[in-house]
């Protein structure tokens, strides 16, 4: 890449090949998010971790998730279970520093393996539709929030943890979706504070996030256009299988390098 692309490479501190790869990966992850409604961060982390370590991907993913959420929001939060969303966000505020501290303390290769391992475990558990009845309690609410924050600090995949709580809660899909949207926005505010305090949300994290939000948004729009109601039941399992495969390949590759 030369000419007009050079300032972008300087801003993002990436080589031409790395920039092109991340643009393609975020476009693909956006498409997956657009037609499945989830897995944006997990998809990017599972693939882009060979280019950037988790601690550099996490701040970038904050911006990508925010951009995708703004595009995908429908209606409002009127149907949301606000106490549930507040409880999850409060728990996440405790878990975020714990997960991020671990990521910062570990060697880069170990943090990569940990992030990929978390993705494989969460995706496999969701694919198996694992239900934990004990989550549907007050302690389960806050515990899920802490676990979601921890998973976010490790691999920015807290939403996959929250999905377990949603499966355990006996509420309508409309209420659960609205609650998840509210939780993600509340979590975005608190996680930005944590990322800033830990010095992780630096200039490169911000610029990469803003730059790669463009292909992400394009992907989300394309994904929404590709969505077909009659095939909606297949999207989630296919995405989870893809996630498990990509993260597993990354794990194997990290052990062989």
From TrEMBL:
<feature type="transmembrane region" description="Helical">
    <location>
        <begin position="39"/>
        <end position="64"/>
    </location>
</feature>
<dbReference type="GO" id="GO:0005886">
    <property type="term" value="C:plasma membrane"/>
</dbReference>
<keyword id="KW-0472">Membrane</keyword>
<feature type="transmembrane region" description="Helical">
    <location>
        <begin position="84"/>
        <end position="106"/>
    </location>
</feature>
<feature type="transmembrane region" description="Helical">
    <location>
        <begin position="206"/>
        <end position="227"/>
    </location>
</feature>
<feature type="transmembrane region" description="Helical">
    <location>
        <begin position="180"/>
        <end position="200"/>
    </location>
</feature>
<keyword id="KW-0813">Transport</keyword>
<dbReference type="Pfam" id="PF01925">
    <property type="entry name" value="TauE"/>
</dbReference>
<feature type="transmembrane region" description="Helical">
    <location>
        <begin position="144"/>
        <end position="168"/>
    </location>
</feature>
<keyword id="KW-1003">Cell membrane</keyword>
<comment type="similarity">
    <text>Belongs to the 4-toluene sulfonate uptake permease (TSUP) (TC 2.A.102) family.</text>
</comment>
<keyword id="KW-1133">Transmembrane helix</keyword>
<feature type="transmembrane region" description="Helical">
    <location>
        <begin position="234"/>
        <end position="252"/>
    </location>
</feature>
<feature type="transmembrane region" description="Helical">
    <location>
        <begin position="113"/>
        <end position="132"/>
    </location>
</feature>
<feature type="transmembrane region" description="Helical">
    <location>
        <begin position="12"/>
        <end position="32"/>
    </location>
</feature>
<keyword id="KW-0812">Transmembrane</keyword>
<dbReference type="InterPro" id="IPR002781">
    <property type="entry name" value="TM_pro_TauE-like"/>
</dbReference>
<protein>
    <recommendedName>
        <fullName>Probable membrane transporter protein</fullName>
    </recommendedName>
</protein>
<dbReference type="InterPro" id="IPR052017">
    <property type="entry name" value="TSUP"/>
</dbReference>
């Amino acid at each position: 890449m030369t000419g007009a692309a050079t300032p972008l490479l300087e801003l993002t501190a990436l080589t031409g090949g790395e920039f092109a790869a991340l643009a393609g990966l975020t476009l693909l992850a956006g498409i997956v998010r657009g037609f499945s409604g989830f897995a944006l961060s997990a998809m990017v982390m599972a693939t882009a971790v060979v280019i950037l370590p988790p601690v550099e991907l996490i701040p970038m993913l904050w911006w990508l998730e925010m951009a995708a959420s703004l595009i995908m929001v429908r209606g409002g939060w009127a149907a949301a279970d606000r106490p549930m969303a507040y409880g999850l966000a409060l728990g996440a505020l405790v878990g975020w520093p714990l997960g991020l501290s671990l990521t910062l303390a570990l060697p880069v290769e170990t943090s990569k393996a940990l992030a990929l391992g978390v993705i494989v475990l969460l995706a496999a558990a969701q694919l198996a539709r694992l239900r934990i009845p004990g989550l549907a309690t007050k302690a389960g609410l806050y515990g899920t929030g802490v676990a979601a924050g921890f998973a976010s600090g490790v691999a920015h995949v807290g939403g996959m943890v929250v999905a377990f709580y949603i499966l355990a809660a006996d509420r309508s899909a409309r209420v659960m979706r609205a609650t998840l949207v509210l939780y993600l926005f509340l979590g975005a505010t608190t996680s930005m504070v944590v990322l800033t305090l830990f010095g992780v949300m630096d200039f490169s994290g911000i610029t990469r996030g803003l730059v790669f939000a463009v292909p992400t948004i394009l992907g989300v729009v394309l994904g929404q256009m590709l969505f077909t109601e009659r095939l909606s039941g297949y999207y989630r399992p296919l995405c989870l299988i893809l996630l498990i495969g990509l993260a597993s390949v990354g794990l194997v590759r990290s052990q062989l390098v």
